[in-house]
Automatic annotation (TrEMBL):
Protein name, entry field: Fidgetin-like protein 1
Region (Disordered): 291-323, 336-402
Compartmental location: Cytoplasm, Perinuclear region; Nucleus
Catalytic activity: ATP + H2O = ADP + phosphate + H(+)
One Pfam family hit: AAA_lid_3
Domain AAA+ ATPase, residue spans: 462-598
GO annotations of cellular component type: nucleus; perinuclear region of cytoplasm
Keywords, ordered alphabetically: ATP-binding, Cytoplasm, Hydrolase, Magnesium, Metal-binding, Nucleotide-binding, Nucleus
Bias (Low complexity): 296-310
PANTHER family assigned to the protein according to its UniProt record, in alphabetical order: AAA DOMAIN-CONTAINING, DYNEIN REGULATORY COMPLEX PROTEIN 11-RELATED
């Protein structure tokens, strides 16, 4: 886990008593704090303590006590596996990466420990890359010095073999390195457990005895710039710090797993240290490393000390070199730089961030709650209700970034991923009553080709666009979604009117971005509701921006910028097909009429909805309902059933509602439908229906 703090104040008094610290640093425990705030505060305070400790502002005993107190105070957050409140959820490091690997069946219980996280393949790959680099950059003599001085070879960055500190010298080194930021994580490796916390602090007496000497010796032993991994800091903050720090820590080695460490080398040179603090004082977001790595991992650890040291050695092992970034990380950084509007920290998890808000209304401070940028691998992020697992978002530098997205504004990608990409429950063909011809056609021309692109080649190739037209509430959206679900495609759903009105001046870019993201997520279905407002016939009053959006859309639809192998289907839906201009109409080759549901379909809708309710309707009554609902759309039928379902409640005395048991509510009866028919009327006029019929006969592809 990472910690980030904007400005670190260095305590002014050289000796600070525990009580003073407790007084000033435990004020945040009021009951009004949210878990997120507490988690943030927790990190910030931990940092503060560790800085004070590292600067000898407080004693080791004091630090250990404070850490223990914090662990106790915030154990609810730290230990919690709750996706909302658990501190793990705020992690943006290796743990997050690891969490992305989980699926529901894992019954994941914060079982990640420092060790098993590093066993994950994705983690090892990254570690290996860093290790290789270090090996190639570390002079053999450096390694010898380390070995000679009692530091396990494996503890030296870049040296592959792992070992646990066990020798006296190693212990001394660790104890002494209390002064060193790089030792920090061990102390707080398991803040959730006071036991582990205590035991992870080197024995006080020994530490006190050995501190000055070993501190110095460490500084001699460790190559200049030997840095700790900020396990608790935000990636962006760390990243930016990294840039700032590079000047001061010329020869520092950045040990951050994600190559974003900003922690300076802890050298004997007070000049260097001052330079470091100087930066910190100037507002640099410098990240020390004494914060907990995996709060809950202590539970899993059999030997706390071993765990502590293993955390140390692992981080050493994964250390990188300053300034090194993989190409994909560089790309990510570049993308973030381009996105000047975005807050400093927002982009990290923004693509996978809180849903449906584009981050607006969602405050993400420097410690903003982390939401994994990628879905679980089973795609069940939303309770198993998802057509297709979402592909990886491009904002997490630890994940591959699609080259195609590099020219797209991140905020647009975010919007598309969160607002337009649909993550709702899957839809089956059986969920759509009636419209048999349309369903059969769609299966044949769209779903099968998407499933078997190898067979549906050449003339059999799928169309790029289809049009569903008909009265409102007849299931066009349902069909669009069903296509996506049944063909294993990602479903993007957008209203064309929002393209033209919501993003004034940006609609054109939005169209381009939408197709680009869809291309990255293919097979994909782009459902455009009210497509008539996007593709309406050109007139004198047509606005320039509307014209540009339309042109861009047609270009994208034509696939001018796509390869022939792209599997993207545009499904347009409209209630006003007559307003679509010829150029667009021609491109939407299959124009399918989605009419009002026939009697059999209406029966299907009623039966299906009532089967989920406590209902006393018999066959005959259902037939009567179907008969009386002639001219109703699917949406009207749904509304009718909703209204009828309220009948039993309405018949209750007002006083009963507070006390009645659910099973005492009478079943929905025919009389409730009779009442419902008095308020629910068909929403489509026969005149409107004529228009659809006429247009269908002229341009439709039905029989
Ligand atoms: N054929 C159908 N089978 C089952 N339910 C239907 C059907 N048609 C409509 N519904 C019900 O009506 C609701 C609205 O349907 P949907 O949004 O798909 O209609 P639409 O044709 O896209 O409407 P609009 O043109 O107004 O966007 C659905 O969620 C569903 O409850």
């Amino acid at each position: 886990m990472y910690v980030s703090v904007s400005v670190m104040e260095t305590p002014t008094h050289s000796t600070v008593h525990l009580s003073d610290w407790q007084k000033s640093y435990f004020a945040i425990t009021s009951g009004t704090c949210t878990p997120a705030q507490k988690a943030d505060e927790y990190r910030a305070k931990i940092l503060h303590i560790q800085y004070a400790w590292a600067n000898s502002e407080i004693s080791q005993v004091c630090a250990a006590n404070l850490f223990k107190k914090y662990a106790e105070k915030y154990s609810a957050i730290i230990d919690s596996d709750n996706i909302e409140t658990g501190l793990n959820n705020y992690a943006e490091n290796i743990l997050t990466l690891a969490k992305c690997q989980q699926n529901d069946s894992d019954k994941w219980q914060s079982a990640l420990t420092t060790d098993n996280v590093f066993e994950l393949k994705c983690v090892q790959e990254r570690m290996q890359a860093g290790k290789n680099l270090q090996s190639s950059q570390m002079a053999p003599t450096d390694a010898c010095v380390l070995a000679d001085k009692g530091v396990s070879a494996s503890a030296a960055p870049g040296l592959p073999k792992l070992s646990i500190f066990s020798s006296a010298k190693e212990t001394e080194l660790c104890a002494g390195s209390a002064k060193c930021a790089s030792r920090g994580p061990e102390l707080l490796e398991h803040p959730s457990s006071s036991k582990s916390l205590q035991s992870s602090v080197p024995p006080v007496t020994k530490a006190l005895d050995t501190l000055p000497a070993s501190s110095a010796s460490l500084n001699e032993q460790v190559p200049t710039g030997f840095q700790a991994t900020p396990l608790f800091a935000s990636k962006e903050v760390a990243s930016s710090s990294s840039l700032k720090m590079s000047g001061s820590c010329r020869d520092g080695q950045n040990l951050s797993l994600s190559d974003q460490s900003a922690v300076p080398a802890w050298s004997t040179s007070s000049g260097k240290r001052k330079a470091f603090y100087g930066l910190a004082d100037e507002g640099s977001t410098v990240i020390p490393s004494l914060a907990p790595c995996q709060a809950s991992s202590s539970r899993e650890t059999s030997s706390t000390e071993t765990s502590s040291f293993s955390g140390y050695r692992n981080r050493n092992e994964e250390s990188g070199v300053p300034g090194f970034r993989t190409a994909k990380e560089q790309l990510w950084v570049d993308q973030q730089r381009k996105s000047q509007n975005l807050p400093q920290r927002a982009p990290v998890s923004s693509y996978g961030g809180v849903k449906k808000s584009l981050g607006a209304g969602r405050s993400r401070g420097p410690f903003g709650k982390f939401v994994p940028p990628v879905p679980k691998q089973d795609g069940n992020e939303n309770g198993g209700a998802q057509c297709k697992p979402r592909a990886r978002g491009p904002t997490d530098p630890s994940l591959p970034v699609d080259e195609r997205l590099k020219n797209i504004e991140p905020k647009m990608v975010e919007l598309i991923m969160h607002e337009i990409m649909d993550h709702g429950p899957p839809v089956n063909w059986d969920d759509i009553a009636g419209v048999e011809f349309a369903k059969a056609t769609i299966k044949e021309i769209v779903v099968w080709p998407m499933l078997r692109p190898d067979i549906f080649t050449g003339l059999r190739g799928p169309p790029k666009g289809i049009l569903l037209f008909g009265p409102p509430g007849t299931g066009k959206t349902l069909i669009g979604k069903c296509i996506a679900c049944q063909s294993g495609a990602t479903f993007f759903s957008i209203s064309a009117s929002s393209l033209t009105s919501k993003w004034v001046g940006e609609g054109e870019k939005m169209v381009r971005a939408l197709f680009t993201v869809a291309r990255c997520q293919q097979p994909a279905v782009i459902f455009i509701d009210e497509i008539d407002s996007l593709l309406s016939q050109r007139g004198d009053g047509e606005h320039e921006s509307s014209r540009r959006i339309k042109t861009e859309f047609l270009v994208q639809l034509d696939g001018a910028t796509t390869s022939s192998e792209d599997r993207i289907l545009v499904v347009g839906a409209t209630n006003r097909p007559q307003e679509i201009d010829e150029a667009a109409r021609r491109r939407l080759v299959k124009r399918l009429y989605i009419p009002l549901p026939e009697a059999s379909a209406r029966k299907q809708i009623v039966t299906r909805l009532m089967s989920k309710e406590h209902c006393s309707l018999n066959e005959e009554e259902i037939e009567l309902i179907v008969k009386k609902s002639s001219g109703f759309s699917g949406a009207d039928m749904t509304q009718l059933c909703r209204e009828a379902s309220l009948g039993p409640i309405r018949s209750l005395q007002s006083t009963d509602i507070a006390t009645i048991m659910p099973d005492q509510v009478r079943p929905i009866a025919f009389l409730d439908f009779e009442s419902a028919f008095r308020t629910v009327r068909p929403s489509i006029s026969s005149k409107d229906l004529e228009l659809y019929e006429t247009w269908n006969q002229t341009f439709g592809c039905g029989r």
